[in-house]
Amino acid sequence: MPQALRLLPWAVLSLWLGSVASVFQSGLDGCQRMDIRNILMIIGNLLFFVAALWLIPRYGLDGLAIGQAGQGLFLILASWAMLRRQIISLPWVPVHWSKVKFKEMFSYAVNFQINTIAILLFEPVIKLLMSRYGGLSSAGFYEMSSQLVTRLRALIIAASQALTPAVADLHEIAPEKNRGLYLKSYSILFFCVIPFYGAILISLPLVSVLWIGQLESQFLLFGMWLIAGWAMNTLAGPAYFFNLGTGDLGWNSVAHVSMAILNVLLGSYLGQRFGALGVVIGSMIALIFASLFILFFFHKKQKISFWNLVPKDHLILFPPAVFCIIFSAWAYKTNWFFDNVFLGGWIGISLYLLLISAAIWSHSYRTKLIKFVRKYVFNGNSKTLSYFKRD
To answer: Over the stretch 325-351, which tens digit does the pLDDT of each residue have?
Structure first.
């Protein structure tokens, strides 16, 4: 307790510094300079690491807390300096107060916090129900499969998040172009999601052996359901971030609250009937429902047919993915690999990469994406989303 009380002021200071710094970093996002934000975050983490190496031997855990506060101070100063370079009208010290803008931001923040609270309740409730109906071992396997899927999913979601400032900008100057931007971004995301999650699914048996030491059925079943749920949630990403960009958070809030309620009801009911697997099935059904809810009402608002959820151009991606999944499942079930999971895993992954690469190579998006990368990435254009804003 004495040590905790001694660290508490530093923890509160770090929280405050980090919160203020995040405001300036969000300003950089609004200027579509996520590259600068990420560079500052990397430098801040490196400084924190160096400070920890230097301060911990001298001051113990207090040194770690001091280093974290120093990291927050660096991020405030550096982020504000970089933001002033993007918006030259900003003063040296931000002291201006606008009651009108504060009220507008506050109403937006209330809806956003409802979403945040609902999201925070999602995972803890799953783990609570998992421990109750499946035991600690099931909770452990769920945590491993969840970390695998959600951490890899973050690679795609991080790119989709860049839509929010772009949509906010477009919403102010040319709102009629939002529909075209959404269709382009959704189509490109779908083009990436099918091969991406298919690769994770094919790799599950190999990951199980490497991570756990054996083919663990619970890990595989949890992983399959998590892939299905989070893949659908990933496809709802553009609609979700478009709502954030336009300030229309109502449907996002309803979807999150519905997801939290369904998670409790379905998780409890199916957990009682089917144990740990029932909890996962219930939570993923709630996640899929919330994702489809956002997609349905966004498409309705934008007058987009719900059948556009599966673009016709991308149907070519399904046959190789489905074939490899069925082949891998059959091979493991019939012991076709003679209990050599490593051999089977690499054969399955290699076959999948070969077939999906052939499908991608013959797809029209291949040339479009190569053209985009050459023009907007290698040429150093910071506002790459301008490519997608054009009619």
So the answer is: 888 777 777 666 656 667 777 787 888
The secondary structure of the chain, three-state, reads CHHHHHHHHHHHHHHHHHHHHHHHHHHHHHCCCHHHHHHHHHHHHHHHHHHHHHHHHHHCHHHHHHHHHHHHHHHHHHHHHHHHHHCCCCCCCCCCCCHHHHHHHHHHHHHHHHHHHHHHHHHHHHHHHHHHHHHHHHHHHHHHHHHHHHHHHHHHHHHHCCHHHHHHHHHHHCHHHHHHHHHHHHHHHHHHHHHHHHHHHHHHHHHHHHHHCCCCHHHHHHHHHHHHHHHHHHHCHHHHHHHHHHCCCHHHHHHHHHHHHHHHHHHHHHHHHHCHHHHHHHHHHHHHHHHHHHHHHHHHHHCCCHHHHCCHHHHHHHHHHHHHHHHHHHHHHCCCCCCCHHHHHHHHHHHHHHHHHHHHHCCCHHHHHHHHHHHHHCCCCCCCCHHHHCC
pLDDT of residue 379: 59
% of the chain beyond a pLDDT of 90: 29
Residue 24 clears pLDDT 80, i.e. is over it? yes
